Structure formats: structure tokens, C-alpha cells
């Protein structure tokens, strides 16, 4: 639903939807607290304001309308799904990607009603972080939720967290999917032990500021990013732990300790992806390349200096995992199949640009490659300890540069 259009003025929008001030701020709009400035700037059309910021009008309109829609709907949907029912038959816990959380919860609410299911669900936005989720994981497997959904490696493989239950073999992939989407061909992304389900992935891509590129070679591969040419020139999503850990692990696997050191030396600054899309407007030294989730590239303006580049050697991916308890297979099977369905896959892929593993979803990718950590590597390493080790190498290389 479109709540606003490009002809409306900023003052009209703020009067009708005051909560959108946060959205405007996140896209680089300033001075709204100054009434005099707002009376002047706020009188021009939204379209003119967006173009002055060199942002995509269509993408901005889609984003702000989604923001309003989510703000209206999220509270009610969240309350419905987070209600704790002591007599619930099934419990679900996890983190859902922010851009698609509301449509996913809407679909889930509809599914529950159609199937008359008594479920306790606590599915928070990924931006809330993992700390609360880690606290909910007890040493006794009988106390953990029946289904877990989240992205990243540390939660699912650390021995102090879900890793301990993997060793006890209490999980089973009950989605019924035997072959993943053709976009993941030859990656062997399906768990050979049949413990874990992967329903989607978060790809890391490059956003290149061509105004800052100078005589440097346009970066098309991860090797380019790690070259001496790009020292102190890169912005990384350090605060996005799921994706950052995936980047660290894959760089370590492909390039060893030296690769992780080079990544640390390449770091100019850490940014949230929402900041990355407007990094060309920073007053201080600007990153030449920002490494970010694929979703955020849709917020860049057409014809501006920021150019998205899918790495030619592959976008490093952070999988969105789903774990389901084996001893409740009969009760959980239909729910697992729902979350792994084409319907959910299309929401993830088409609305969030999180490519789905479902074989019948068209991810609308043009033979773009992925870099996947691999089950052999996962199963032969203590992933939790390796993440900590890579972080130490990365942080030390930053200190050496300083």
C-alpha cells in the first residue's frame, strides 16, 4: 500500500506520519528539528528532495512506504506472535531479516489460522541482535525451542550454544527438499548429515564510490579488495555480526591468516549498511568500497557515483538456517515445510533480495556466483573458536595500521 507519493511535501509527510523522521534521518536528511529550515526545505516536493540527495526516487518511495506499513503493522503482528502460551504445542524462536520480517509474520499468522495451530513464536527482527537468543539456549535440550531460525554461523555451531545439540543429533532437516535451487549448483550447500536446513542466504557484495576511485583498479573480486592498493579504503559491516563473521571465515579459508590481516588493513571504517548507501556524502575521508548485504544496493540512486558490483569470484554468503527437533517431527513437519516453501522463498528473494534455496523460486540472478564456506570445512573446524581467532587477527591488524 502506498501511503505517500512523490508529489507530497516533506512537511505534509511529517505531519501525517511523524514517525518517518527516523527514516529521513537514516537517508541523510538533516535539520528537521530546526523549524525555520523545515519551513523552507519542507515545502519542496519529496521527489525534488530525493533527487537533491542523489537517491533513487522509486527505491526511496518503496522504502518509506514499507517503513510506514511496517510501523503500523509490526506492533499488532509482533504481539500476536510473541505471546507466550504455557500450553502451546510448539515453540519457535529466532531472528528474521528486517526488510521482510512483517510479510513473513503475516504469512505465518495466516498459516497458523488455516491449520488451527497452537504455537508460541518469538521471531524478532535481526537488528535486535543475538544476545537475547543466546541467553534463551539452555544446557538442557528439553528446554530449547522446537524450531530455530536465524542467519550466521556462531549461534548454530559454537559448542556452548547450538553446537552442543548438533553433537547430540537432536535436529533433523524435515523440509522434504532434496535438491536446492539451481543458483547454488555445485556448491553442495545441503547438509550431508541432514541436521540443518538452509532456507535462504544473505550475500555480501561491493558498493564502489567511483568518485573516490581515482587511478585504482575497479575492484571486481575479493582478491582485489585484499590487495595493497585498497589498504585503508574499505567499509565493512562489522556491526552486522552474521555477515561479518561469514566474511571473516571465508577469507580465512580462501586466503589464510594473511588474508584476514589484509582485510583488517583494508578497513577504513565500520558502518551499518543503511549508512553505507550514502557514504559518498561523508565530509571526512570516504571509503572507496563498502561491503554490504545485497539488499541495500537497491537504495542507491541511478546515475550517482555509487556502483554496485557483485564479486566475479562470488558473493560470500551468510546462510539463514532453520533447525527442527527430530523427536517432534510429526508436529513440526508442516511448519518446517511452510518456512522452506516457495511462498516464503519468494518473499525472501523478491522483497528482501535474500536468494532462496527453494528449487522453484526464480531468484532473478544472472549466473551470479556465491562463495560458500562448505560443510567439510564446518565439520572439520570448531567454528566458534575459529571466529574468535579470526576476529583477533583482524583487530590486531587494525591496531598495527594505527
UniProtKB/TrEMBL annotation:
Pfam families on file: DUF1858, SBP_bac_6
- Give the GO biological process terms: thiamine transport
Q: Which UniProt keywords apply?
A: Signal
Which InterPro entries does the entry link to? DUF1858, ScdA-like_N_sf
The chain's coiled-coil residues are none
GO MF assignments? thiamine binding; thiamine pyrophosphate binding
Any one cellular component term from GO for this entry? outer membrane-bounded periplasmic space
Every copy of the DUF1858 domain together lies at 4-60
What this protein is called in its record is ABC-type Fe3+ transport system substrate-binding protein
